[in-house]
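haha ok so turns out i had the wrong file open the whole time. this is the CORRECT one, sorry everyone. sequence first:
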Amino acid sequence: MLTLPNILTLSRIFAVPILIALLWHPSRFDYALTYGLFVLMGVTDYFDGYLARSQGTVSKLGVFLDPIADKIMVAAVIVMLITTGDIAHWTVIAAMIILLREIAVSGLREFLAELRVSMPVSQLAKWKTALQLVALGALILGGALPQWPFVHETGLYSLWAAAVLTMITGWDYLRAGIRHMD
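then structure:
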């Protein structure tokens, strides 16, 4: 159970309160620290799966925790960036699309698990997650570098692109899940 991949996944979950604390009343320095931690968390997201597959240590715990860790991290950062005003106005809609899809797909996975139906993560969903991480990372970095407004703007545009992929992958999962609902 306590394999290196699972420890990396758990570290992402345990780092979320630190992200929240850093974004509570952030200074430029807090944004910089948050960005560093967020990038580290993104790297561990890649390596936990890579190591588990390459070492042959893929576990049920890891398969269960990895998407939860991703969703907790993304949701916490979105909520905090809305709170700080880094995500504001119309872009809150993109953020809400992402949050609502994550909740809906989690519920669908739980429902299908009771039917013993697995829903593997699609390649497009992996790209969606990567784009979400890039968008949120740019928005965090934009807080550390206000003299470079294009960083923040890149984050906003990327968040909208992630929201579009989020809707597409959410629809794909829903369509696959509907076949099992009588």
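DSSP finds six helices and no strands in the chain.
again sry for the mixup
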